[in-house]
């Protein structure tokens, strides 16, 4: 996959990624980030997105200093009629985006809705994000 990306053939890289999923090869979140170098155009070209690809893009936007884009992508993912249900990693990524954006109220609203909206129990990583979110200069 990395060879395809390095040669500007992201579509072929996506095909390899999706084929690996079809035959049962599990790629980790870190593999997707490092091997694909996950670019926006790769994500947009994907016919079928799974949580790992959504999470990779949300994380990428956050770490590149575009938390508002990460939050917008999270909203798109969340409103996809159950096709792409956020998981605990998604929520860590989006709470980090809220922290980076200084969106304290948005982050708290998302955190409070984890159980009801997504059926997810907060984990230590989510609480750590909330601590970071509330640690604003004052």
From TrEMBL:
Keywords: Repeat. GO terms for molecular function: RNA binding. Transmembrane segments: none annotated. PPR repeats lie at residues 50-84. It comes from the Eukaryota. GO terms for biological process: RNA modification. The keyword rRNA processing does not apply. This is Pentatricopeptide repeat. It comes from Parasponia andersonii (Sponia andersonii). The lineage of its organism: Eukaryota, Viridiplantae, Streptophyta, Embryophyta, Tracheophyta.
């Amino acid at each position: 996959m990395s060879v395809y990306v390095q040669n500007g053939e992201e579509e072929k890289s996506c095909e390899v990624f999706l084929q690996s999923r079809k035959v049962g090869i599990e790629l980790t979140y870190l593999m997707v980030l490092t091997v694909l170098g996950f670019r926006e155009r790769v994500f947009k070209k994907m016919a079928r997105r799974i949580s790992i690809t959504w999470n990779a893009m949300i994380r990428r936007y956050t770490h590149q200093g575009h938390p508002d884009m990460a939050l917008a992508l999270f909203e798109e993912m969340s409103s996809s009629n159950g096709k792409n249900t956020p998981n605990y990693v998604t929520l860590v990524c989006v709470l980090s985006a809220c922290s980076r954006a200084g969106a304290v109220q948005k982050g708290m609203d998302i955190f409070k809705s984890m159980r009801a909206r997504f059926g997810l129990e907060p984990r230590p990583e989510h609480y750590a994000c909330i601590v970071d979110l509330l640690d604003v200069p004052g």
